[in-house]
Amino acid sequence: MMRPRVGRRLVRTAAVGGAAYMVGSHAATKSAEQQQQEAAQNAQIADLQQQQAATAQQAYAQPQQPQYAQPQYAQPQYAQPQQIAEPAPVAATPARDPMEALKQLGELKAAGVLTDAEFEAKKAELLKQI
């Protein structure tokens, strides 16, 4: 009589069982890591809340100085006298003749250096000086 091959079934069962084990262990590891991250985040949030609460308590717990309290004076410390530098003399700019400036402005416009808007704005300034 022929005996069925037990080896193939055993290998197939071992392969399926091994794959299932790998998937299960990966899922368990991932779940554990996620739980650790959540626990760390929760701990950080709790620490921040405690710090905020402590800061708020300190702000309210500080006693206010009464308005009639005398200030405490420190011993006077005398500063070294500072040397004041004299301002540099301002060079006197010669007064420009507005008529001469208008002539130069017209030459710049004719040469194409100035646009019409720039020319009109500067011309208005110079005419106010006359």
Brief descriptors of the model:
single chain; 130 residues; mainly alpha; 3 helices; 65% helix; elongated
Classify the helix fraction into a percent range.
Answer: 55-70%
- Which spans have pLDDT < 50 for at least 5 consecutive residues? none
If you compute it from the alpha carbons, what radius of gyration comes out, rounded to the nearest whole angstrom? Answer: 45 Å
Taken from the alpha-carbon principal axes, the silhouette is elongated
Averaging pLDDT over every residue, what do you get? 78
Please give the oligomerization state of what you see.
single chain
Tally of separate helices: 3
List how many beta strands DSSP finds. Answer: 0
What does the main sheet amount to? none
Structural class: mainly alpha
Strand content: under 5%
Order of helices and strands: HHH
> N- to C-terminal separation?
132 Å
Give your account of this protein's structure.
The protein is mostly helical. Among the domains are: 7-58; 98-129. The protein is built from 3 helices and no strands. The protein is elongated and about 125 Å long. The N and C termini lie far apart (132 Å). 0% of the residues are buried.
